[in-house]
Hints:
4-stranded antiparallel sheet; alpha+beta; single chain
Amino acid sequence: MSKNFVDKLFVKARSHYNWKEKDIDNKILKDLYSLVKNCPTSANSEPMRIIFLKSKKSKERIREYLSEGNVEKTMTAPVVAIIAYDSKFYNHLPKLFPHNPGMKKVLSNPPAKAETTAFRNSTLQGGYFIIAARALGLDVGPMSGFNNEGVNKEFFPDGRFKSNFLCNLGYGDKTKLLNRLPRFKFSEVCKIL
Length: 193
């Protein structure tokens, strides 16, 4: 893997909150999902669900649920992705994990186990989503500063899907980036046993 590619995905990649006025083609969003769907999840469960808000009208629906500091950066993003999860993901396991039909029962009981599995794996898929977006030349601004309950009622009224986090997508204005914030050193957070 080339150093430039590693830099693009990790070393020089930044969270963006200021955006260029440049549309994202729907094909890029489809390509983004095509990359993410191939990444691993528990028992190939793929619980993540995504709603891409592109139109001004669709973004207005989320405005009132955003934390005050996230309104401008979200409303000016070309696309806002609601990364959610299917709380009944296990109903799809006969299709997604056909070689082990018993896995549906294993991952659906007790309900708390199903919820944990759905949340954990949609978060994992959300990480893949961020890396895949960067690989396709997009900049990202993931965030959790919003009212999950309000977003769920607005976009998932039947209660089956639940929001995990938001991820603004676009082409970031690199002239408005803050200096990179400090990070832990390996020795501060890692052990090799």
